[in-house]
Write a structure and sequence with these properties.
about 450 residues
Amino acid sequence: MPASTPYSRRAILGGIASMPMAPALASNPSGDVDVVVIGAGIAGLTAARTLMDKGHDVTLIEAADRIGGRAYAETATFGQPHDHGCSWINHADTNPWQEIAREHGFDLLDHTSAGGAHFVDGERANAEQRRSYDHAWGTVTQALMKAGRENLDVAASTMMPDDPTLGTVKTWMGPMDFSVDFKDLSTADWWNSADSNKDLLVPEGLGTVIAAFGRDIPVRLNTPAQAVTWGGDGVRVETPDGTIHAKACICTVSTGVLQAGSINFASGLPVETQEAIGNLPMGLLNKVSLQFRDTRLGFSPNQWLDYFVPNDMPAEAVYFLTWPFGYDFMVGFIGGDFGWELSRAGEAAAVDFALEELVRMAGSNARNAFVKGHLTRWDSNPFVLGAYTAARPGRFSARAALARPVEDRLFFAGEALAAPYQALNSGPYFSGRDTANRVIAQVLS
């Protein structure tokens, strides 16, 4: 559920996407450096900055043609800022992006107490239906808390009572929050995730903030890591532009990329590391945004719009953020198994589904005023291959296992290793910073 309700364990949709700003370009990456960092998303940028601020020589390489990773905002699609990935500064009192945004002159909107509308069978919920919805939040939350108190790491679906009213809540707390359905949601992953106390939005897009943060960090774009070898004399990272020799390597790519074998870890990863990668698959949360002309369809800006769905999972549902900052588009969210299915069907199918669901609530005016739609497709982005990680039920410990360095030469960092801030944009910041400090203490001191 979104952060605007009293039922949310933590802010919804904090975890995945920057207005293109040209970063500082690194010199030829071949040669000897202290550390080579793979991936210029949040974790990689933060790791590089931490190392540079402490006087260490760093080469940062990025396979894509931009920095930011899953933090990306642009204005080309709708003529207004559109965050493709992470949008909220969740848990803002401890989230470093709040201070960074303010330092770069961005204004922030407090979205903690945003309201919303709940629909049942195409009509706004009446008092009795609203009470049922409220009760469902309590039922699901109490069941998951019971698993947490009992230190259980099982599929969330096994903890649910047989109650037909729970589908809407399970859709929020599974696909929309953790990017997986309840059958794939680890109760330990849920229990060990941070509660949000304050949630902020950025009019220009959070991706723009992260692009500004990384603008002066030298990075070699369009430079994928092809192979990594390590040993007593350090690390070698092969790229199309040559081989980088370093004392240590910090790899910040997603577990989706790791599982795809896009990087050859030629020295051989330990079994524990390989198993950890396999036990941290990527879930999916895509945005399907719809633009309209000359209408608000009866909905206020910056609010949530959801509707009753059956208890079946995966739920075929799209929930909306209405008119962010008064822009003329709504942002829909589709996740979990249905998100994968609809993305495979293509953008036109996803846009059509979202529009028809909105028409059921807002009437034919929505169809008449519709301009165009857009689907983010993080699943097919070769540099991500999903939204964010969801530990397999029974395998929450994989997050800590992947964080263990390999022979004090190869270190992993990123959202997957960021508990309790997994799937939130503060998580990769902390992971990148802390991993860089670990490299300094264990390798460079």
